[in-house]
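Consider the tokenized backbone below.
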């Protein structure tokens, strides 16, 4: 007999009923320190007063009208994103997966309108994750993502992570774009060095192809800049955004230059829920906080404090941990034990972490966490590691 909820998740035996800042309260009353943030979604923590006010205020006025009409809240958020980024235009979605679909369509339509319909190939990288739609799994290409779901959407070329020679050799007359996460999330918190991001921009400019960044997990302040690619001082042509932009409310976006978006005219794409008044009211409140330089400065300060503590844990538990990697408050502990064992040991200490590939446990706390909460998390990780070692 199949459960009423389709069993596609291996869920932890936890049922949370309330959230307060960096904390989740279980149905039995236990308080868990949340270093997962809904997989980098709850950027401002749980029940942030500004987001609650934005949501309830909008909910009392208007929920949904569809994109057949002007949506002032959508215009307001789009204007904020354009002002703060490289982008000239924004399309709102409800998820990162939906953003991936549009990024692929936008790329191919761009070349079609330039009378080069043969340019359809998008170069992607081992360890990537771009959602679980047909385009998303085809882009990632791993057996874990694609097995049993063929035939796959064609037009993706998969390359080794960090192999510049392989990347250069893969560019052909059919190449339309390069798609990359500035920091791989599901792939194990693997940042692309700034020099590599600059090299990608140069390579795309040299060959006249588009550069697409997937900042669904690493964007919206997560690395200490509004978007992770800003550290490298370069811009993409198209960028996928979701997760943190809604602070917990389903919201995503595709940001693009006017050139890259030039093929997307009326009728070429749509979304029933994307950019509705509720989502954009919340997203606008998130942007007001996360784009503030003082807020981002605090993210960087707290990130340095957390990383220093994690380096100490690695030194204290060399049989459990191998290294710390990542950027800002998107950090990973590479383990010498199964990451699932570490995640479960952390649950026992009432701390939430998230597993990833490459034997990594992800630490993705709310960007609003306090110094005291950092100290508490480090103490609980220390206890979790000690429990595994013994």
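A designed sequence for it:
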């Amino acid at each position: 007999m199949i459960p009423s909820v389709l069993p596609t998740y291996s869920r932890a035996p936890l049922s949370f009923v309330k959230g307060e800042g960096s904390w989740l309260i279980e149905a039995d009353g236990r308080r868990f320190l949340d270093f997962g943030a809904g997989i980098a979604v709850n950027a401002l923590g749980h029940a942030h007063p500004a987001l609650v006010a934005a949501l309830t205020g909008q909910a009392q006025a208007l929920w949904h009208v569809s994109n057949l009409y002007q949506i002032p809240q959508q215009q307001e958020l789009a204007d904020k994103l354009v002002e703060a980024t490289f982008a000239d235009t924004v399309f709102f979605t409800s998820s990162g997966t939906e953003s991936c679909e549009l990024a692929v369509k936008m790329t191919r339509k761009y070349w079609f309108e330039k009378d080069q319909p043969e340019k359809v190939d998008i170069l992607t990288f081992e360890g990537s994750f771009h959602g679980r739609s047909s385009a998303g799994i085809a882009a990632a290409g791993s057996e874990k993502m694609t097995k049993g779901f063929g035939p796959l959407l064609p037009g993706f070329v998969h390359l080794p992570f960090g192999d510049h020679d392989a990347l250069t050799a893969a560019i052909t007359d059919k190449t339309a774009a390069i798609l990359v996460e500035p920091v791989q999330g599901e792939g194990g918190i693997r940042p692309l060095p700034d020099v590599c991001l600059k090299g990608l921009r140069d390579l795309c400019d040299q060959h006249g192809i588009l550069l697409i960044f997937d900042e669904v997990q690493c964007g919206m302040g997560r690395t200490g800049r509004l978007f992770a690619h800003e550290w490298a001082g370069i811009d993409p042509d198209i960028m996928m955004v979701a997760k943190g932009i809604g602070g917990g409310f389903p919201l995503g976006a595709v940001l693009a230059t006017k050139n890259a978006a030039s093929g997307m005219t009326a009728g070429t794409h749509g979304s029933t829920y994307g950019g509705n008044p509720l989502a954009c009211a919340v997203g606008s409140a998130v942007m007001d906080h996360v784009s503030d330089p003082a807020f981002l400065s605090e993210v960087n300060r707290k990130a340095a404090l957390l990383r220093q503590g994690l380096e100490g844990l690695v030194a204290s538990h060399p049989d459990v941990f191998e290294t710390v990697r990542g950027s800002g408050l998107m950090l990973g502990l590479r383990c010498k034990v199964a990451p699932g064992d570490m995640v479960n040991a952390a649950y026992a200490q009432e701390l939430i972490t998230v597993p990833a590939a490459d034997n990594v446990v992800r630490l993705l706390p709310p960007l609003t966490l306090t110094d005291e909460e950092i100290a508490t998390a480090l103490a609980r990780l220390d206890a979790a590691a000690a429990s595994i070692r013994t």
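The chain has two domains: 16-34+293-389, 50-290.
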